[in-house]
Amino acid sequence: MRLTVLGTASHYPTPASPCSGYLLEHDAATVWVDAGPGTLAELQRHRDLTGLDAVWISHAHADHTADLLPLYYALAFGDLPAREPLPVFGPPDLRDRLLGFFGAGAARDLDRVFAFQSLADRAGAVIGGLRLAWEPVEHDVPAWALRAQAGGVSLVYTGDAVLSPGLTAFAAGGNVLLAEAGADRADGSHLTPEDAGTLATRARAGRLLLTHLALGLEPADAIARASTHFGGPVTAARPGDVVSVDPLSVAVPTVEG
Ligand SMILES: [Zn+2]
Ligand SMILES: [Zn+2]
What we know:
Blueprint: E1 2-7, E2 21-26, E3 29-35, H1 39-46, E4 54-56, H2 62-65, H3 68-77, E5 86-90, H4 94-102, H5 107-113, E6 114-118, E7 124-127, E8 130-137, E9 143-150, E10 153-157, H6 165-171, E11 176-180, H7 193-202, E12 207-211, H8 219-227, E13 234-236, E14 241-244, E15 251-253
Parallel strand pairs: 3-4, 4-5, 5-6, 10-11, 11-12, 12-13
Antiparallel strand pairs: 1-2, 1-14, 2-3, 7-8, 8-9, 9-10, 14-15
Residues 59, 61, 139, 160 line the site of one zinc ion.
């Protein structure tokens, strides 16, 4: 299994990074996880849009969903070959939110290109060789964490969440824990770097990959703070990182700029 980091920024994209977004791949299966602003362009540095098998959205905040808007335009009106509707796993109100932007008259086209599946209606799915499972987490809107398993390894992504027994149990034993650190100090809706380290320790993660750092939080400081609570490897995700998810995972930057 392989993780490609498309973006990590909090709140708004910068020239250095889109907001939250990742590609998860195993064999021929490709799943786009969170569609933060800027990630659609970054995705196309790595993969053709025709290669997407599914989209998985952790929650409806715009820093995780906004690029579903241009994805719709690309699939509905772009020069891409016709395809079956793209499965979009997300919060229950995601379709209605998108229709709010496009207008009710777009409903037919929206359902022609996207096949919405509510994360509230089921607990997992199999996309090619990728087994996905999800679990509700505590955030200020309905939100879910994701576990992806393939080839005997697993990656857990917190989405946006606070530390909770449910999240700890769900994250148990992941080879890679991709954890947000969107709070510099505890804010009731995001993990701090210390929380991410604590989660990694309690879940016995193989390694901790920090992402979605709070504005102003330097990666080196976030790593140092998380490392006071976790003895395993800690790094901060950067756009272009390609992480091989295995028992001895390493991050390798592959895309310049
Ligand atoms: Zn959020
Ligand atoms: Zn967020």
